[in-house]
Amino acid sequence: MTEERFGFQAEVSRLLDIVAHSLYSEKEVFLRELVSNASDACDRLRYAALTQPGLLAEDTELGIRLLADGGAGTLTVADNGIGMSRDELIENLGTIARSGTAAFLERLSGDARKDVSLIGQFGVGFYSAFMVADRVEVLTRKAGEDQGWRWTSDGRGEFSVAEEAGVPRGTRVILHLKDDAKEYLEQQRLGAVIRRYSDHVALPIRFGEGADAPTLNRASALWTRPRAEIGEDEYKEFYHHVGHAFDAPWLTVHWRAEGKIEYTGLLFVPESKPFDLFDPRRRHHVKLYVRRVFITDEAEGLVPGYLRFLRGVVDSEDLPLNVSREMLQNNPLLAKIKAGVTRRVLGDLVKKAEDPAEAERFAAFWENFGAVLKEGLYEDFEHRDQLLKLVRFRSTASDALVSLAEYVARMKEGQDAIYYITGDDIEALRRSPQLEGFRAKGVEVLLLTDAVDEFWIPHVGSFDGKRFKSVTRGGADLSKVKAGPDAEKKPAETVPADALGGLVAFLKATLGGAVKDVRSSERLTDSAVCLVADEGDVDMHLARLLKQHQQLTETEPRVLEVNPGHSLIRRMAGMASEGATADPALADLAWLLLDQARIVEGETLPDPAAFSRRLSSLMEKGLAPLAA
Asked: N or C: which end of the chain has fewer CB within 10 A?
C-alpha cells in the first residue's frame, strides 16, 4: 500500500505551533505525557483481555520501555498495549475530537506567555513530543489485528500513514530529537524524569530491551499506599497522569472505605476549569478499577453528573473482574460506591467552605464549579443539605460571596423570604429597577446569573424555613420589613390615590392585551415603571431562556408597575385627572413607558418603528418651546 498524506485539523496545527515553540519551560514533561498514554493503552488491553484472552497471548507481560539510540539520535517510547488501527491512528493523532476546543481556541490571545497556561489547562498529550523532536514516527498494531501502520510527521501541517510489516502489538513513538534535546538519550536523565513524574505508574517502565533491562519506576498503584507515605508532589504528578492535566489539584481526597463494601478512592478537584465542563454528555473522568485492574473510564453510575469535574480513580474490591459496562449501569454495588464517593467528596468540600482560612480559595473553587454543583440541588435530594452548605452567591450587600446561612443571619426584621433576581449579567442585575425598593429598605437580594438557577430554586423551595422569592414577581410585600438606619428614604411626594387610580385605568385601557395588569409599585424609588411576572406565571428570565431554546413560542403579557413617587407618573396622573385622556400625546407616553420597561429587561421591542415614531414626536414637542 502506498503512503497516504493528510493535513492536520486546523486546531491541531495551531496547537503544534505553540507547543513546539513556546509551551513549557520544562520540556521534560513530554515524557510524562507519552508514558501516560502508553500506560492507558496497556490498561485498555488488560480490560479487553478479560473477555478476549487471546488478545494477550503473544505477549502477556504488559509494560513500557524507553529505547535510546545515540547513533540515530532517537528516543522511542514503546508499549505493548491495545495499539491502534489505521482509522484510529488518523483520528487520534490528526484531530482533536474534544468538546470545548472552539472555546479554547477563542481564548488564545497570541501572547505566548498567556497562552502557555491556557494550553496547559487544555492538555496536549501526544503533541508534546514536538517540544523535543523535529520529526516523530509512530509504529502501531492493534491487538487482534495482523496489519501494522507507520505514522510520520514533522509537525508542520501534514502527516503520512502507510502500512508497515513486522510491527509488534502496541505502539512505539519514535522521537527524532532536536540538537538541544539529546540529553534525553541518557539513562540517568530519563530515570530522573520518570521518578519525578511517573514513579506511580503501575507498570514497569524499563530502559532498554530484554528481561534484565533496569526498571526506572516504583511500578506500584499510588492509591494503594497509605496517605502518610505519599508526598504532595507525588499526588500532584499522579493527578497530572490520571487527569491528563497540567494544572495543580485544588483538593485531594484519598480514603479507603471498609465494611460491607470495600473500595479505595483517590480523587482530585482541579484548580482550573476543564474545557469540557459543560459538554451536554456530562461525562466524568474518574477511572474505575477492580483489584488494581483497569475496567473503564466511562462508568456512568460511578460519579453523579454534578461532580463531573473530578479526576482520579476508584478501585473496588467487590465488583467482579469481568464486569461489563452494560452490567455496571444497574449494579447495586456501584450505586453504593457512588453514594459513598459523593458523601465523602461533599463532606471534604463542606470542610473547606466552612473554614474561614480557606475563604479565598473556596471562592476560586466556586467560581469554577459552582454552576455545575448547583445541578445537584434538583437532581440529588439525598445530598441536598450538604450542597446547600456549599452554594455561594453574589448579592446587593457586597462584592463578596455569601452563603445562604449568612444571608438568613442578616435578614431584616419583618423579612420572611430569601429574595433573588435572575439574569445573564451581574452588573445589569445590579442596575435593575426591581431592586430599588429592596435597596431602599436595606433588604439584601441574591444576584443569580447561571441558567441552572431557574431550575433548582423551584425544587428546593426554601432554606431554614425561609422561602425563595423572585423580586421580578408581583406581590413583593415590603411593608412588613423594618428599614434599618442606613436605608434610603422614599420621596415624600406621591400621586394621590384617586389620581393614581385614574392613570392606572387609562394605562390599562390604552395598553390593552400588551400587559396583564397595571399596578402601583412598592419596589420602585427611582424608575418610573418596571415589568414583573404575576404570581404563578413563568419568571421573566426563565421565559427568555425557554424562548431562546425554542421551548416557548410566545411570552405571557407582564404586569406593568408604576412608581407613584416619580415626577413623570405624577405629571401623567395630573393630565389624566384634567381630562386629557383623549390626547394622543398621553397615549404615546403610555406606550413609551411600556417600551422603556421592556428595554430595561433586555427584551426585543415588538414594534421598533412605532417606538421610534413616538419618541421622535415627543422629542419634537419638547424642542418646540426652545425654538420659540
From this structure: C
Q: Look up cell 465542563; give the residue.
A: 277
Strand order in the sheet with 263-270: 249-257, 263-270, 311-316, 285-290, 293-296
Please say whether the beta carbons of 177 and 73 come within 8 A.
yes
The CATH number of the domain where 546 resides is what? 1.20.120.790
Overall domain count for the chain: 4
Question: How far, in whole angstroms, is CA 348 from its chain's centroid?
Answer: 20
Question: What CA–CA distance (Å, rounded) separates 287 from 299?
Answer: 8
| pLDDT, tens digit, 9 for 90 and up, residues 463-510 | 999 999 999 887 667 778 887 665 555 555 777 888 889 999 999 999
- Give the position of cell 418646540: 624
Sign of CA dihedral 40, 42, 48, 51: negative
CA distance 136 to 388: 51
How would you class 71 by CB atoms within 10 Å of its CB: exposed for 0-12, middle for 13-18, buried for 19 or more? Answer: exposed
Shared domain for 240 and 316, answered yes or no, is yes
Compute the mean pLDDT over every residue in the chain, rounded to the nearest whole number: 87
Residue-number span of the structural domain to which 329 is assigned: 223-359
Cβ atoms of 19 and 128 closer than 8 Å: yes
Which of 190, 218, 246 is the last residue before a domain boundary?
218
Q: What single letter denotes the amino acid at residue 105?
A: L
Residue 132, CA atoms < 13 Å, CB-side half-sphere = 26
DSSP three-state, residue 39: helix
- C-alpha cell of 64? 513500557
Q: Is the pTM of this model over 0.70?
A: yes
Is 189 within a domain?
Answer: yes
Helices and strands of the chain, counted as H and E runs: 21, 22
* The three grid cell numbers given for residue 208, joined into one nine-digit string: 532498554
Contacts of 68 (CB under 8 A, 6+ apart): 74, 75, 76, 184, 185, 186, 187, 190, 207, 208
Instruction: Choose one of 187, 218, 249: the last residue of a domain.
Output: 218
**Above 90 in pLDDT, residue 101?**
no
Distance CA 616, CA 623 (A): 11
In the chain, what percentage of residues exceed pLDDT 90? 54
Tell me the three cell numbers of residue 410: 442578616
Sign of the CA dihedral with 608 first, then 614, 615, and 616 last: positive
Residues 113, 196 share a domain: yes
